Each structure stands twice: as structure tokens, then as C-alpha cells.
Known about the structure:
Blueprint: H1 13-19, H2 22-41, H3 59-68, H4 95-100, H5 105-110
Amino acid sequence: xxxxxxxxxxxxxxxxxxxxNQSDIEEFNNLLEEVEEGMLFDNRKKxxxxxxxxxxxxxxxxxxxLKRHGHWGSPEPFPIPEGRCIRCGxxxxxxxxxxxxxxxxxxxxxx
Length: 111
């Protein structure tokens, strides 16, 4: 399974505009252009990504899809929203979680 790691940087344009002055924005854009030029030099194609906030009501469905395709999980600790399973990321109360997520061996021993 491919593990989700700190591999991407996501920023809202409105945050950049709110917290950087014009000079900083120009410098930031220059750095982004350098990265893009380096990728072109290395014959790497530019990708477009989707960003999903984990507090959205449909996040469990997206997480389940990512898991089915081997794109969910992390070797490093990351914040898990309250009420979600630390193993699969689904809401602990959903039927999908209850039916499909293996219980933790420690929990199994305590039953």
C-alpha cells in the first residue's frame, strides 16, 4: 500500500494575498516558476490535484475510495478528526466502517 506522507503543499490564494506583501508574492511566484522549470528540465509533466477538506461530510466516502486504490495511510502520525477510525479514517459510526474495518488486536483481546 502506498502511504500518504507529507508530499504536497496546498495553499489558498486568498491566504497568500492576505498574509504576504506584493514583494513576497513576487518572490513566491519566482520560486514556483523555478520549480516548474526544473520539472520541465527533468521531463516531468505538470499534474493537477484535487484537494478535499477532511471535515467535509463526504470525506468518509473519499477516504474509502482512496483506501480501495491504495492511496490512504501514513507511517507518520497525522491529526485524525475526532470520531474517525485511526486505522481506516472512516467515521466510527458508519456501517461501512463497522462492516469493513478490522478491529485493533488490543481491542479484540479486551472483548
